Amino acid sequence: MSEEDGDHHSSEATSTNSLSGSHPPDQVLETVLESVLQFLTCRRDRNAASLVCRSWHRAEAFTRSELFIGNCYSVSPARAFARFSKVRSIYIKGRPRFADFNLMPHNWGAHFRPWVSAMARAYPWLEKVYLKRISLTNDDLALLADSFHQFKELELVFCEGFGTRGLSKVAYNCRQLRVLDLSDTEVTDDNVDWISCFPEDETCLESLVFDCMENDINFDALERLVARSPLLKKLRLNRYASMRQLYQLLLRAPQLTHLGTGSFGLIENIQNLDDNQECNYYYSAFAACTSLVCLSGFKDVMPVYLPSIHPVCANLTSLNFSYTNINPQQFRSVIVHCHKLQTLWILDSVCDEGLQAASETCKDLRELRVFPVDADEDIEGPVSEVGLQAISEGCRKLQSILYFCQRMTNEAVIAMSRNCPDLLVFRLCIMGRRQPDSVTGKPMDEGFGAIVKNCQKLTRLAVSGLLTDKAFWYIGQYGKLVRTLSVAFAGDSDMGLRYVLEGCPRLQKLEIRDSPFGDAALHAGAHRYYNMRFLWMSSCRVSRQGCEEIARSMPRLVVELVRYDGEEGSFMEGDSNSFTVLYAYRSLEPPRNDAPESVTIL
Amino acid sequence: MGSFENDLNLEATELRLGLPGTEESEKGNGFRSSNKRPLSDSEAKQDGVEEKGPKAAPSPKAQIVGWPPVRSYRKNSLQQKKADPEAASGIYVKVSMDGAPYLRKIDIKAYKGYPELLRALENMFKFTAGEYSEREGYKGSDYAPAYEDKEGDLMLVGDVPWEMFIASCKKLRIMKGSEAIGLGCGL
């Protein structure tokens, strides 16, 4: 039972009470226990420890300093904070992942307000907040900045709802701020120069990430900030940073380990500077950054400047070219130097050739993501089964792959399953819906079957292409460690879903869209839903009745039905029996009261 | 893909909201009868894909919401850059605009003609070029796109045939309209 459920099931388990009374030995025992539990950091170990008996439960709750809330609606702040009184870091996740793809209304929920208000009272010593897919406002940030005097780290991933005004409060008030990380987070331009709001003396900043911010910043202020932040190791600029600005910052901060280069193509309007001269300047700036291990950005790349990063390539463990539209030759000229690379994110513009080049050099590769330049279904794609095969042959240590393509074969997928047995994450997105093996014309069942069979550590799987129930039979049969499964346009019948629900004991997150699974399958999984974080089914065959039955028989399961037209971006009119999304999750609380009108909670 | 239709039993995988086994009536339980639903669009288009008939420029398969699963931030970032994958052979020239602090560089070979080039410039620098005529240059705008050719002469963009332009353009400059008067008379 994960800890965000609080006492839900553990109270039933802790019946032993032979240590009743307050004999000194028990006090000593509990104190000793607390001292020992301090060292337990892994939350799953802590959950296990908390189930031993009441005494352990208490001691564990008292010593837990990192609180992880996997679904912000599964437990209320009050309940969570009542159990854990000494929290210093908190992780909260909100919206389900498919909401990123326009399948849910923007005002669906996942607000920070109730959490930050409660935290302000419960944890005045709070140091770290990490939010994923949460909506927060400027006021929330102001409250955060005012309430936590030892605040050190703020990480917002896929969040939105606030602007530069809120940021300025954090910059100004959080004097011990070490980390401000706004990865993939939308920030509105309130016309506030937040960079200038950092304290004037030396800062503790170690990480400043704002690479997805779509507004300009005060560069002079940034340069001064970097100059007075001797501990700065991670800096990721947004696309408004020009080459010259990047150059100046590199000169100021050669100690950087993680760099986001911004545009890598925006050039000052200085008429008489020669390309080669420029490149040499940048080359020497990079050459001075001997600690650089992670490079990203390149959002408006001028390929002619790419050679300037060559000095750092040999040390790079992580390279993110996923916004960088370069061709195979341009890519090859960089990748051949990257022997130590472990993480590589690229666009399919590098083609199978580029993947081949990567497979020849990056023998230590652990994570690969290949994104499409053209997220379209009807085109000839530049990467295919050839690239996948090459990677599998060259990068035997691969643990995680996300691969968008227009064509794929079972053979290549099977090859990967054999060559890369350490895979933990396999996400293949064949962009044409229900597309079969492009050589044999058969379904992709065997390929995915081989993955679950041969990659025995697999915890996350995303399937695509033409798939029959057989594929799901394989998953149920072999995917014993799978925790996250994403399904789209796949399967023949209810049996497909049943195989998975009955066969995968570790399944936590199941997201399905546009697949022919209906009420019978939904009911067949009832025994699983309390042990899962959530179930998402959109545009499948479940009916309102079926959902109502589940909701009735499972009082601790919140069943939300959403009516949302992603195309129109609006609440769908129409008869109230219809819905587009079923989102069900376990919760210790009564259903939330902050849902918009497009959401019906059964 | 043709012969698979029968084997695939498309009917069974036909997507709709409703209890399995119900008849194919539009008004089944839970099925909304409106042609706005992406679902109905995709059903219609499924047949269209197999055909590949002589329809000139068939409308693309209806874009299904959220598919392929690429976040919109990423999609928008890449919209601007559908660069030619063979850009290694491209001709990059600097583009400046009077009064703007930054230069850009573009590959003029990536464009098929003046209209495309002008549109791209307008998007990049957020201005409108106005109407071009041989005699009067660019009318109706504060800015005029000009270029410097191999001989160092400043010319109005559009004055020479496209192929000649590609071969002779060294750099582009978006000038203030007032300064551009008199250009183009050099021909």
UniProtKB/TrEMBL annotation, chain A:
Entries under Pfam families matching the protein: F-box_5, Transp_inhibit
Residue ranges annotated for the COI1 F-box domain, each copy included: 26-65
SMART domains: LRR_CC
Pathway this chain belongs to: Protein modification; protein ubiquitination
Location within or outside the cell: Nucleus
Residue ranges occupied by any Transport inhibitor response domain in the UniProt entry: 86-131
InterPro entries according to UniProt: COI1_F-box, Leu-rich_rpt_Cys-con_subtyp, LRR_dom_sf, Transp_inhibit
Keyword Repressor: no
Biased composition (Polar residues): 12-21
One GO term (biological process): auxin-activated signaling pathway
Record keywords, A-Z: Auxin signaling pathway, Nucleus, Ubl conjugation pathway
Region spans: Disordered: 1-24
Residues forming coiled coils: none
Biased segments, Basic and acidic residues type: 1-11
GO cellular component: nucleus; SCF ubiquitin ligase complex
CDD domains reported for this sequence: F-box_AtTIR1-like
Record-given protein name: Transport inhibitor response 1-like protein
Source species of the chain: Trapa natans (Water chestnut)
From TrEMBL, chain B:
Compositionally biased intervals (Basic and acidic residues): 38-54
Keywords, alphabetical: Auxin signaling pathway, Nucleus, Repressor, Transcription, Transcription regulation
Primary location group: nucleus
Keyword Transcription regulation: yes
Region of interest (Disordered), residue spans: 1-68
GO BP terms: auxin-activated signaling pathway; regulation of DNA-templated transcription
CC per GO annotation: nucleus
Domain spans labelled PB1: 90-177
Gene3D superfamilies according to UniProt: Phosphatidylinositol 3-kinase Catalytic Subunit, Chain A, domain 1
InterPro entries: AUX/IAA_dom, AUX_IAA, PB1-like
Localization terms from the record: Nucleus
Alphabetized SUPFAM superfamilies for the sequence: CAD & PB1 domains
Functional summary from the UniProt entry: Aux/IAA proteins are short-lived transcriptional factors that function as repressors of early auxin response genes at low auxin concentrations.
Subunit field text: Homodimers and heterodimers.
Family: Belongs to the Aux/IAA family.
Protein's name according to its UniProt entry: Auxin-responsive protein
